[in-house]
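Subject: Predicted fold for N-acetyltransferase domain-containing protein, 113 residues

User T.R. writes:
Posting the sequence so we have a shared reference for the thread.
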Amino acid sequence: MAYSADDLVGMGGITNIQWENRLGEISLIIDPKQQGKQHGERAVGHLLEQAFGNMGLKTVFGECYMCNEAWKFWKKIVTEHAGQETILPNRKLWKGRFYDSLYFSFDADCFVL
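User M.O. replies:
I've generated the structure tokens; pasting them so everyone works from the same file.
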């Protein structure tokens, strides 16, 4: 969890860990009032440092549905941290429409902070 003064800014983590494959999923949620203030960028950097440095993971992956404007944030983050991405079609049915998703991963050997 991240706080600014006494206010909760957001929270994130590495979840769905497969220790035998050294693989984990990144998750992040930032209060909409706190978005655009670099909190998400700093949180992702910290989470990836923990995943690769302290936890010994090889790969961290994530998925963001394109009905969520956060997919643009993740696309930028993937580029900044030398990740890989692909678009998966028709992954989310929301409000009567199918949306694609941005599926992405970061590899410990290629990670750039």
